[in-house]
Known about the structure:
Elements: H1 6-11, H2 35-43, E1 47-56, E2 62-74, E3 77-87, H3 89-141, H4 147-174, E4 182-184, H5 186-203, E5 206-211, E6 219-221, H6 223-245, E7 248-253
Parallel strand pairs: 5-7
Antiparallel strand pairs: 1-2, 2-3, 4-6
Amino acid sequence: ITEVNNALVKGYGFHEASQFVGKRWADFIPFEENKEFYLKFVRNNYNIRGQESIERDGKGNTRYAENSLVGNIVNGKLVSSFGTGRSVTERRRMEAEKKELERRAQFASRLATVGEMASGIAHEVNNPLTGVIGFAQLLTQKKDIPEDIREYTKIIHDGAQRVAGIVDRLLAFARQHKPKRSYTSINDIIQTTLKLRAYEMETGNIKLTTRLAPGLPGTMADAAQFQQVFLNIIINAEAEMKLAHGKGSLLIKTEV
């Protein structure tokens, strides 16, 4: 680099042109990240316009630029080049934020659909489940059945009650309601939310560790909204761990 203007000096985080002069462009536009940029420059007879590059500023931070570059050819060889560039880092940042917002909106939409499905499934399960619990309870109260049958019936009853608890939590999660603040235990909400994900974490090879502070003060909040937030965080964490490693460890901790 033999000559730069003040705008470029400032754009790369330097204070004066002398910090630039004498360095190579590859120091700021690494070849490994910009192979297409350099190849296009050569293929187009050392002339490119509006070509984006991934760069490093004076502090090593990533920046993005849109460049126009013209080569000076002498006897068929490139001896120098002259170009202009403008930073598009802010534009790229805004595009990335937009994509992230769109991703979150799509996730929220899918979650709403899952909630509607969960509500329908829960109601369908609840009807026969009520009969199972009721008749199992009646059988356990009979005095003229063998003791082993009574024990089996009790196991059926207890298992059905656990399923009923899962159904109730699904309904609470799926139910649409206006925000209602009440004195709420954060630890209780976390434990209830984790029960909803227990099966998925077990089958997904996610090791769960909880360190919930005993005696954690309650707070005025909408329990359903808190549960939604915790559920989103847990599902996102599971997805990222599975994507990166196929398994993972999740630590959930509360403290004062």
